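Quick one - first record:
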Amino acid sequence: MRKGLLALPVLVLLAAPASGLPSAQASGQTVLRVPGGAAALAQALGLDEDWPRSRLLLTAIRVLWETPEGTDREFDGRRARVLEHLRGAHAVQAGPGAAQDDTVPGFLSEDAWKVVLREVGAPEARSTFERILGNRTAALLYHGIASLDQSTRDYLVKYPGLVDRLSEAERVSVFATFGRSLRVRDGRVEVPGGPEALPLWKEVVGDVEAPAAFILRVVSRDDGRLALIYDGIAHLEPGAQRFALGMDIPSDKRIERFRKFYDAAGAALRNWQPRRRPFDREPFDAIHLLFSMHFGPQGELTGPTWPGFWNAVLDPYVIPEKGLHPHSLDEDGPLDAARLLELFSVADPVERTRRSERWLFAHRVFGDATPASITSLLWTVKAYSEYPTLLLTLERMGIRTPATYAAAVRAAARLSDADRRLWQFQSALAILERSRAARSIGAKEAEALVLKLSEITPEGGEPYRGAVARWIEEDFLPAVAKPVVPPDMPPESGPVETAILAA
């Protein structure tokens, strides 16, 4: 059992400043000597020898301590090699006054680190740097302390019991990754979203009047989910932050919706193990999804934001040809942050990726969508999983009209994978995309050509019968308007391939 600070009652540890961590130069001004020099350590880690010194130890911690000891042979071997390098480097250390480029930020004083390292049970070594890097708890604690701002770090130093609690196994990994968003100013917690968001955080975290207790709750609850959401919202752009917090939702419903948002975020995190792998993330969890989106300055959400539409998209029994009644689009209320997660950030990782990629595509491309284009939107977005390359190709061309996407989808649907007509269709689109990328044609011209190409795709098993060649000659080449042969050669002497390559 760990001794010292943990033997004292928790309330005493958190309530009053103590002298357990020496405060002289406790934070911000101290440095740690790097045995053998920073450049040599960077090389031992497989990094460039000019790796920024301010980031060196943080990077080393991520490289070496992504997993606990004994759980991954590759990580264990890498740790052993680097620690052996540090032990051997003492023989070449340049005396007691290491050069500036042989130091990294310490954030706490040497004496403060001695107290911390003793409490976490870090083995003795010839340098504080080696003791920190050689012990997973100490390394993760350093990572978390380094991420704090000066004011919060100073607060931490005053309460050694808080440091001790943060270093416990169930907290230190979460603190290492998400501690950066914990902010204490003048003895008060500053929450993401400012004073207006205080009622929301009180709902999911609890009272904010005692900063130490608040910090411990953030890094302790729900297997890291609370810390991830807290940190993620803190780092969102202002518009995205307002959306996540629901600041435009009436105040009498805001807390309820934020609680639903927080609860919905748990679905994507069922397999997440931050204590074991603190720097891992689940794809398209709540924060990943929000960071991938664009918002107006007041948190306005763009794209097809009708819940009824997305219910239809995700329902395999809804047929696009039948369309949707406009009255059904908003039947479940607005698409707020909670509803967004319920629809897209689901538990199954494969389905979550499929849904999220679908949503992000529609969000990017159809920002100005209106109910008038609902049938075309339904055709297009439902087809995303089957024809992602086609739709992303049209997006790269700068096309934004739902009807054009729907026409291309219907054309592709008339062709089978083993059909030579599909190869011709794909080849024509590839030529068109390259021409658009080379700025030989504009987005409007590209859109018109896509529509024309989609119109000539035959029904059933009928062949193109030269229709693609005619499309190239009669539509594509006039649109690119490029010289097809050298000036001194008659136009009729140049092959059509020359014109296509020139485009």
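second record:
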Amino acid sequence: MEVSKERLRHTMLYECKKRNSAAEATRNMHSVYGKECLNERTCRRWFAKFRSGDFSLEDEDRIGCPIEFDDKLLEALLEENPALSVEELAIKLNSNLERFLNLENGCLVNCLKATANPELTSALLSILANSFHSFWKVL
């Protein structure tokens, strides 16, 4: 059963207010929503948050790739000059390199992989890969 994060968080808050343990709350939610709805560790994190007095059910901002990105501007910059390096793109987009590059398990991963334009994704991956390898050769 697919259940929204909001519903799960409301349920966790309810369980916490009932003074149930995170383990018990997880078991209760598994019996209603199925075992895939959340794990006990997640429930423990939310319980700790609630017990500290923070009852917000919203996600907190996290460091990492931006959720929103002006891919139209990026596309225009790449069409204007396809030879731009990652550093130049970062400067022109008033961003930093971490927004373009994400290293996971030693592989170059495109933070913009969700873009609707596959040609842009392909072009950007090529530019990022070339810039990344050039960067490490200098070091």
